[in-house]
Amino acid sequence: MITVTPVNRGSTGMAERVLWAFSPDRKSVLVVADPGGVENEPVPNGFFFGDETRGFQTQMDSVWDVEPSPDWKWIGFGRAYGVVRGEGTGTDLIADVSRRTSIDTATLRAGSFASSGMSMARAVAQPGVIHIPDNPRLQSAADSSAPRLFPIARGWRVRWTTDGSTLALGNNPGRAEDNEPSQTWIHDGTDARSIGANRYDPGPADQDRARKSGLQHSQ
Questions:
Q1: pLDDT value at position 90?
Q2: What is d(CA 190, CA 18) in angstroms, rounded to the nearest whole number?
Q3: How far is the C-alpha of 84 from the C-alpha of 96, rounded, in Å?
Q4: Domain extent listing, the chain
Q5: Digit-coded pLDDT (tens) for 123-158
Q6: Which stretches of 69-205 are assigned E, i.e. beta strand?
Q7: Where are the beta strands (DSSP E) in the chain?
Q8: CA 181, chain centre distance (Å)
Q9: 210 pLDDT more than 60
Q10: Is 205's pLDDT higher than 80?
Q11: What distance in Å separates the CA atoms of residue 35 and residue 98, rounded to the nearest whole number?
């Protein structure tokens, strides 16, 4: 039996690239749909994770970034929320996001960043993790693999330390651009040199376009 699972059921942009990463044993895959807005403005991504050996899969929309741990037992992500609409009247959104994230409104305002270069829109990131169960059929697996979100307004970019012990949270983007990197990281005092590198490759369609144009994608 063949089933089809959309990678992204959420936001769409003017253009979209597909990225994927495989575990060292090639039994697990993490696929990311990364749309971008007008003038390459930030648009939340969607991702799908599947593990052939364990028979486990999960999908999530509305994330700024996602990264598997080095041992592929955890998925770290930065959940995306809009807190101010483009017209600049965002009090109602702030209150709603505060309820959904358990983060107070003052912290959300302080941790927000511009999500458009053409309007007053602002957004925040909230970090979270998903534990990949060894046996998804166990009764306890549903609870242990449920997304766990932390009451922190940070996580535009996420990376694991090389030993897999800590999820490092990247600072807010300096510009309202979809592929803007983080320059600094919160990682419990860990040496920045121990933060692992991003491991994504272009998906099949992007690889074909890259070959035809002579371009290579990176994140």
A1: 57
A2: 31
A3: 11
A4: 15-213
A5: 999 999 999 999 998 988 888 899 999 999 999 999
A6: 74-84, 113-114, 122-131, 148-149, 158-160, 167-170, 185-186, 201-202
A7: 15-22, 28-36, 45-51, 56-68, 74-84, 113-114, 122-131, 148-149, 158-160, 167-170, 185-186, 201-202
A8: 13
A9: no
A10: no
A11: 26
